[in-house]
Design brief:
Layout (H helix, E strand, L loop, with lengths): L3 E6 L6 H15 L5 E6 L5 H8 L4 E5 L16 H6 L4 E4 L2 H6 L4 H13 L3 E6 L3 H5 L3 H12 L5 H4 L2 E5 L13 H19 L1 H6 L1 E5 L7 H5 L6 E4 L6 H11 L1
Parallel strand pairs: 1-2, 1-8, 2-3, 3-4, 4-5, 5-6, 6-7, 7-8
The structure holds 2-phosphoglycolic acid.
C-alpha cells in the first residue's frame, strides 16, 4: 500500500508574509486529512517562515532545488545543511523549468539527488518527455532513460526517500493535462524501470506522482489510476480552495 503524496510547487511565487498567511489559512482546511502526506515546496527565502507556520500541523515544507556541494564558492546556491536548518524536509530536484532555463541535466540532477539523500532530505525527482518526444512515440524510452540516469548510483536503501514526479513537459503550466490513461501508462513505465533496477518490492513501494496542470477538477480521476500515487502541483497549489480539494481527492 502506497500512501499518496500531494506536493505543491510554488515556483517563484509568494513572499514570506504571503507564505505565512497561506499556510495559516490552509492548515485548518487539511487538518486530520492524513490519507496523504501534504508538502509545500516553496522559494528558499520562504522556507523558515513556512516551516514555523506549519509547526504542529500535518503540512511539511520543502525546497525547490538544492546544490550538490556542501559549501564553497558557488554564488547564489544553497546547500542541504542550510535547507535542513531552516526546516525543509523535502526538495524538488530536476524540475523541467530548471532543466529548460538553468542548464540542469540528468548528471546534475543525479548529483543533487545524491546530496539531498545523504543529508536525510526526501527528494522529489522530476522527469518527463517534451512534446516532440511524445509525438515521435519515444516517451517510454525517454522516461526510462531519465529514471536510470537520475538515480544512477543510488542505493535501494536511499531509494526509500525518493519520490518520482512524472511531469510531461507539454502539460506544465499549459492547462493541457495528460489523460488519466497517459499518466497511468507512463508512471507504469517508470515503475517497471525501477523494478528492473531495484526489484519488484522497491517498485511496488516507490511513490510516483503525476504533475502537469493537475487541479481541483481533474485530480480525482488522475489519482484514481493505479500507478499515480500523488501529485506535484504548480498553479493550483497557490489557491487554498483548489489545493484542499486535491488533498480531499487523495483522501
Ligand atoms: P502546473 O505545474 O501544475 O502549474 O502545471 C506543475 C509543476 O510544474 O510541477
Amino acid at each position: 500500500m502506497r500512501k499518496y503524496v500531494i506536493a505543491g510547487n510554488w515556483k517563484m511565487n509568494m513572499t514570506p508574509s504571503e507564505a505565512k498567511a497561506f499556510i495559516t489559512e490552509l492548515a485548518p482546511c487539511v487538518a486530520g486529512k492524513d490519507g496523504c502526506d501534504i508538502v509545500l515546496c516553496v522559494p528558499y527565502v520562504d522556507i523558515y517562515v513556512a516551516a514555523e507556520a506549519a509547526k504542529g500541523t500535518n503540512i511539511h515544507i520543502g525546497a525547490e532545488n538544492v546544490h550538490y556541494e556542501a559549501k564553497g564558492a558557488y554564488t547564489g546556491e544553497v546547500s542541504t545543511a542550510m535547507l535542513k536548518e531552516v526546516g525543509a524536509e523535502y526538495v524538488i530536484i530536476g524540475h523541467s523549468e530548471r532543466r529548460q532555463y538553468f542548464g540542469e541535466t540528468d548528471t546534475t540532477v543525479n548529483l543533487r539527488t545524491k546530496a539531498a539523500l545523504a543529508a536525510g532530505l526526501k527528494a522529489i525527482v522530476c522527469l518527463g518527455e517534451v512534446k516532440e518526444e511524445r509525438l515521435a512515440g519515444i516517451t517510454d524510452e525517454v522516461v526510462a532513460m531519465q529514471t536510470k540516469l537520475d538515480l544512477a548510483g543510488i542505493s535501494a536503501e536511499d531509494l526509500k526517500n525518493v519520490i518520482i514526479a512524472y511531469e510531461p513537459v507539454w502539460a506544465i503550466g499549459t492547462g493541457l493535462t495528460a489523460t488519466p490513461e497517459q499518466a497511468d501508462e507512463t508512471c507504469g513505465v517508470i515503475r517497471k524501470t525501477i523494478a528492473a533496477l531495484y526489484g519488484e518490492k522497491a517498485a511496488e513501494e516507490i511513490i510516483i506522482q503525476y504533475g502537469g496542470s493537475m487541479n481541483d477538477k481533474n485530480a480525482k480521476e488522475l489519482l484514481g489510476k493505479e500507478n499515480v500515487d500523488g501529485g506535484l502541483i504548480g498553479g493550483a497549489s497557490l489557491k487554498v480552495d483548489a489545493f484542499t480539494t486535491i488533498v480531499d481527492a487523495a483522501n
